Amino acid sequence: MTAIDGLPPLREVIRDHDLVAKKQLGQNFLLDLNLTAKIARAAGDLAGHDILEVGPGPGGLTRGLLAEGARKVLAIEKDPRCMAALGEIARHYPGRLEVINGDALDVDISQHLRAPYKIAANLPYNVGTELLVRWLTPKEWPPQWDSLTLMFQREVAERIVAQPGDKHYGRLAILAQWRAQARIVMSLPPEAFTPAPKVHSAVVHLKALPAPRYSADPAILSRVVAAGFNQRRKMLRASLKSVAPDIEAKLEAAGIAPTERAERITIEGFCKLARVIAEG
Predict the structure, then answer these.
(1) What is the pTM of this model?
(2) Tens digits of per-residue pLDDT, 207-231?
(3) Among 96, 168, 192, 273, which residue's Cβ finds the most Cβ atoms within 10 Å?
(4) CA separation for the pair 258, 4 (Å, rounded)
(5) CB under 8 A, 24+ apart: contacts of 194-201
């Protein structure tokens, strides 16, 4: 697909604005507008929704989101070289695209979007996981966002959707699946990008649940999960020793064998242990 909206093909945009991808910014541009439109559709019905996009680059996904009917897109781009290209898209969609030249880690999204909004992005590889963790750990739940449709390195995507016993199962899986439905909706080979990264990529869709699957204090759960997986080869009675002095008794009270390892414990099991620890 060369165009979806009368604007130039992305290869022309990159050439005209001299947008050579920068490795230090984690940039890998997705130039096929068929694929960017497919990612936009994976975010669900966009009509009547505000959308946050991080790292739009030359604007391929931005155009897909707007063409699919997004009420407004807030695009946060750190690279000032991309501003002119994004400005052309903004003029093509009057009043529907706001572009901020800045770091997504520093922008207060609530000042720019109406909740509940959706987040859709081909995240820069160097900040993708940090942004996801921030979005999954707001002070209050449910969050201001309704869903996340995000592209990651394939390995990170597999960590998000992993199940107990899987080699990818860990803190990220528990963090994501405790309060959201998570699934991989698309896989992309390196050659889909310019420049081609050394790894495959995948798009993950996360839908916020109205409440966590199981009750637990977020801070205690986070501490237990972090300690368990920081030493994932150790038995829990050893890896969780710093969490509580009588950890073996607490594990048994939660119905977990002290000789088990973190990678075999379900989210429900971790939440039950967090409740037992909270009781003192």
Answers:
(1) 0.95
(2) 999 999 999 999 999 999 999 999 9
(3) 273
(4) 57
(5) 194/14, 194/21, 194/28, 194/29, 194/31, 195/21, 195/28, 196/28, 197/28, 197/125, 197/153, 199/153, 199/154, 199/155, 200/153, 200/154, 201/151, 201/152, 201/153, 201/154, 201/157
Q: In this structure, what CATH number is given to the domain that contains residue 71? A: 3.40.50.150
Q: Is 251 found in the same domain as 157?
A: no
pLDDT in tens, 11-32: 999 999 999 888 887 788 999 9
Q: Is the CB of residue 109 less than 8 Å from the CB of residue 51?
A: no
Specify which residues 50 forms β-bridges with: 72
Tokens matching residue 122:
């081909």
The label of the residue with tokens 């409440």 reads: 211
Name the residue with tokens 């080979």.
189
| Domain identity same for 83 and 180 | yes
Looking at the fold, whether 14 and 95 belong to one and the same domain comes out as yes
Alpha-carbon distance of 126 to 123, in angstroms, equals 8
